[in-house]
Amino acid sequence: MNAPPKAAKKLLADAIMTNNPLFVEGVIRVDRLQHILDHDFSSFPVLNMSGNVMGVIPKNFLIVLLQHHHWYVAPEGKDVTAMYKTHDC
């Protein structure tokens, strides 16, 4: 079954989502990621450099990436997060 339940067919996302959702950028600092993971959400929108939603990533996948040390290390002196629009936690 690929269709939503009958009761949810006219339901809009803003009826069930928070007004200020937590999200992750394609390149994110570990301290910001830690702050995000402290919340009880099961997944987070992923934003590109322009601030547009590119998809959703499950919380458990973020945790696995951190556990296996799968992250990007910028060349010394280069802050790649500066390329992204800044968003306060």
Topology:
Blueprint: E1 24-25, H1 30-37, E2 43-47, E3 53-58, H2 59-67
Parallel strand pairs: 1-2
Antiparallel strand pairs: 2-3
**Apparent shape:** elongated
Quaternary status = single chain
Evaluate the radius of gyration: 16 Å
Span from first to last CA?
A: 38 Å
Helical run tally = 2
Instruction: State the share of residues found in helices, binned by percent.
Output: 10-25%
Structural class: alpha+beta
Q: Strand share of the residues? A: 5-15%
Total E-strand runs: 3
Query: In sequence order, what are the helices and strands, one letter per element?
Result: EHEEH
- The CATH homologous superfamily is called CBS-domain
CATH architectural name: Roll
Number of domains: 1
Report the uncertain regions. Answer: none
Q: How is the main sheet built? A: 3 strands, mixed
- Give the overall average pLDDT: 83
* Assigned CATH class: Alpha Beta
Summarize this, please?
The protein has helices at 30-37, 59-67; strands spanning 24-25, 43-47, 53-58. With 89 residues, it is α+β, with helices and mostly antiparallel strands.
